[in-house]
Fold this sequence. Notes:
Layout: E1 4-9, H1 13-25, E2 29-34, E3 42-44, E4 49-50, H2 55-58, E5 63-65, E6 74-77, H3 79-84, E7 92-94, E8 101-103, H4 105-115, H5 127-156, H6 161-182, H7 196-208, H8 215-220, H9 231-234, H10 236-247, H11 252-267
Amino acid sequence: MADLRIFSYLPNPRVSKATIAARFCAVDVEIRGASGKELRDWLWDYDARPLAEHERQSLSSLARTGRIGLTGAQLFKTNAFLEAQPFGNVPAAFGPNGKIGIFESNSIMRAVARLGEATFPLYGHDAYEASRIDSFLDVSLVFARDAQTYLLALSGGTVNATIHARAKEAFAIYASGLEQALSPRRETLVGNGITLADICFAAELALFMNEHARAEQLSEHGLDRILYPEVQSDYPLVFAHFARLVDHEHFRPDLKPYVEKLLSKAAA
């Protein structure tokens, strides 16, 4: 039985936070899921699975209206799922018996690090390093909130100048802080090795790169790319660190194909 089971839409760089951490820490993480559209036809549960057509009617009492990312969709969520996952969102993680739910990708990633702390110190070597790591994770949440609003608006055709401006400012603040943190010729954000701070950063930037696939929508609204062609020159340490992480053996299986696909769209 896996140490942790995660249910989510796939691919999802926020799930990759946990799977990358698991490779460092030798933690057994099981992933269940499908594309966002396909999750409409899944039973949302610890034992999540695709629904057979005849089950949709018999399980109609479990139907809930989707919100973020699946707004208005009819989703089938068990009562046990909602007890473990009170906000009803994915990624949703569970302990081995399915009773304990862990939600929000940074918390799921932290759970992996705690489970495997004896193998690799992803959460730092002492309380001070752990707290500094938490500082980076907390800052990432501010960026991630505006980034998600922006990316969902792009994919849903509802992006406007206000949403774009908030995401642009959030990225500038986030990238500037990371550039400063890396400026003393550092190769990691905290301490002398890779930590949860680096994993979170790489996953969030990879997710934000979905902007590259929405150039047409931006053009239609007279908006420029936030990840403009010269952005790597303006934040050289940030993007050099990102490149190092994407090529790392524990990051590469999740992030390299994801990032390469989006970069190909940017080039097109």
